[in-house]
Amino acid sequence: MIDPGLALATRGLRKSYGSRLALDGLDLSVPTGVVYGFLGPNGAGKTTTMRVLTGLIHPDGGAIELLGRPFTRRDRHRLFDVGALVESPAFYPYLSGRDNLRALAASGAPTPTSRVDEVLEVVGLRERAGDAVSRYSLGMKQRLGIAGALLNDPTLLLLDEPSNGLDPAGIVAIRETFRHLASLGKTVFVSSHLLAEVQQMADVVGIIAAGRMVREGSMQELLASEGIVRVRVEPDEVTAAAATLARLTAPDRVTPSVMEPGWISVQIAPDRTAEVNRSLAEAGIYASGLSSGNDLEELFLTLTGDAASTDPDGTFAGIDPSLGRLPSSEVLS
Amino acid sequence: MRLFVSALRKLAPRMATLLTFGLLAGMLVLIDVAVVATRGVSNAGPDRPANVLALITFPGAYNQILSFILGLGGLFAVIYGAAIAGSEWTWGTLKTSVARGESRSRYLLTTFAAIAVVLAVGVLFALVVGVVAAAIGATIAGVGLAGIGDRAALEALPEHFVRGWVAITETAALGFAVATLARSQLAGIGVGIALYFGETFAGLFLPDVVKYLPFHLATAAVGGSTGFAPVPSVTGPVMSTDTALVLVATWLLASLVVAAGFGERAEITG
User: Fold this and answer.
1) Which of A15, A19, A22, A117 is the most exposed place for a label (fewest CB within 10 A)?
2) Euclidean distance between CA atoms B89 and B194, whole angstroms
């Protein structure tokens, strides 16, 4: 027994695909009755985690507890209390949305037929429920996928990128639905790339990189403790600047960016921004850009570092979230 | 039971179902039309008109129609079984059910049970269409319908039907297993067709071996080759239809065990 207050927990979860390590001792602690944001760069192991938690693949090692009880490959009935949307939603294209949900309701947890129309109402698809799924837009399929996850009135929801394809109104509606479910004591575990969305929705955040949990805690605590100041100096001054900034905090809290040459992230309280600037100036290094904040994106980039742009094989695995970001209003130049 | 009913409901409106049995029935009608249209042609030899008219001459027409359905039905069934099993992986619908806590093997075997029922209904449908078309053809061709109520032929029909149904269910199971192993609709269909024609081709060189393979056994179980069966019976020692039926059932069960066993252990990704 890990902790009776947890809806979901993993300890030392490991999974490899051939020689590639996808999960490297993942420890996850998801409290009951919260919206949990599960963040990580491409290739970090988020989808592998989702697959393991839903019994689609089997871990090489480690332990899982679902709703307070161990979950192994012989415990598929534990999933009767879980609703899941793993990767893209999957349906029979020639059947209507309603018939797809009816077919889904016939598998797994016993589900009353009346529940189908209830969940269609929740996701706003009731009017189009009679149309074939092949005629649905990406966003409608995503809504139907969420409806499928809600079908058995689950105690724990596992959702992989649930906002994919949704329009802004849909994103807001889904966010409110998840918040409402959490207020009812249900647990919503959401894997997402949309950092701003998670920041608005989640009570607790876990950040995974290279198959390991790098930071986990309540959103408020993390943001309060993890202020970030970013400075831009000339690329040939990065080493000297990093050494100077390390004296203000600690060497492991100073991270030069690989993707943005010249930028350095410092984990330090935002109210020490002026001190950062002054110490650089005293060392004869003049910052051409400076920003401070404690938003989730800064925290994510700092914690995941280069893993945000490269997978464990060292090949490009996705867009670094920092690319294309405009300087904040606090940038000095 | 709810899973089985749901599987049937999923199969009924499916294009693969409508196409498979529509094509089978449609081809029977077309053949009867061709027979009626060419009934006066005698330039292909003195015996040809009589042989051709046998297709619409009762009571022999019953066996002719059933043999056609079961012969071509073997190929259609392997494709149908592969299409249904493969789409569960390709569309990700197996994944969704497994994530709801459904047993993988129960899901796969229930899906196949529904396929077997659909095959029975589909073959019956094609048989009825074939008999009606042959009766209409016989009337137009002036062959007469005297034998249509032949008691011996009608009494033998259910047994032939059941044997034939088991035989094509076996080939469907083969396609189902191949597509499950391949986790792909297209790969399953492709390999199923290749096995069908590969077995036919191999029968020319290795008749003693090939007679134990699924498509030849299916043919043997319904009483050997007829003029319509695409898989010709092999030469060599004759196998009784009952022995063939037992071996057909063995292939059927083995295919399902392989499919369920693989499904139970497979890592479901994508």
Assistant:
1) A19
2) 21
User: Interface of chain B against chain A, CB under 8 Å?
Assistant: 2-3, 5-6, 9-10, 13-15, 91-93, 95-103, 107, 267-270
pLDDT of amino acid B238: 62
CA distance A44 to chain B (A): 16
Of A149-158, A230-239, B50-59, B71-80, where does mean pLDDT reach its minimum? B50-59
| CB neighbour list of residue B181: distance below 8 Å, 6 or more residues apart | B258, B259, B262
Q: Which residues of A touch B83 (CB under 8 A)?
A: none
Over the stretch B19-62, which tens digit does the pLDDT of each residue have? Answer: 999 999 999 999 888 888 887 665 555 555 556 788 888 898 88
Q: Look up residue A206 and give its amino acid.
A: G
List residues bridging with A26 in a β-sheet. Answer: A13
Categorize the per-residue pLDDT at A323 as very low, low, confident or very high, splitting at 50, 70 and 90. very low
ipTM > 0.90, yes or no: no
Rounded Cα gap, residues B243 and B220, in angstroms: 9
DSSP-derived letter for residue B46 is T
Q: Which residue in the set B14, B98, B100 is minimally distant from A94, CB to CB? A: B14
Which domains occur in chain A, in start order?
Answer: 6-217 (3.40.50.300), 227-308 (3.30.70.120)
* Cα–Cα nearest to A178, from A154, A207, A196, A194: A154
Strand order, beta sheet including A212-218:
A82-85, A156-160, A187-191, A35-39, A204-209, A212-218
The answer to whether the Cβ–Cβ distance between A106 and B5 falls below 8 Å is yes
Strand-pair category, A212-218 with A204-209 = antiparallel
Residue B63 contacts residue B228 (beta carbons within 8 Å): no
CB contact under 8 A, A88 and B6: no
Range B103-112 average pLDDT: 96
Give residue A175's identity as a one-letter amino acid code: R
Residue B96 has its nearest CB partner, among A90, A94, A99, at: A90
pLDDT tens for each residue of A136-178: 998 899 999 999 999 999 999 999 989 888 888 888 888 888 9
Which of A17, A20, A50, A56 has the highest number of chain B CBs within 10 A, making it the mutation to test binding with B? A56
Is B99 within 8 Å of A55 when comparing Cβ atoms? Answer: yes
Read off the pLDDT of each residue in A234-259 and give the average, rounded to a whole number.
88
Measured between alpha carbons, how far is A206 from A142 in angstroms, rounded to an integer?
Answer: 24
Question: CB under 8 Å to A79, separation ≥6 — which residues?
Answer: A54, A55, A66, A108, A109, B99, B100, B101
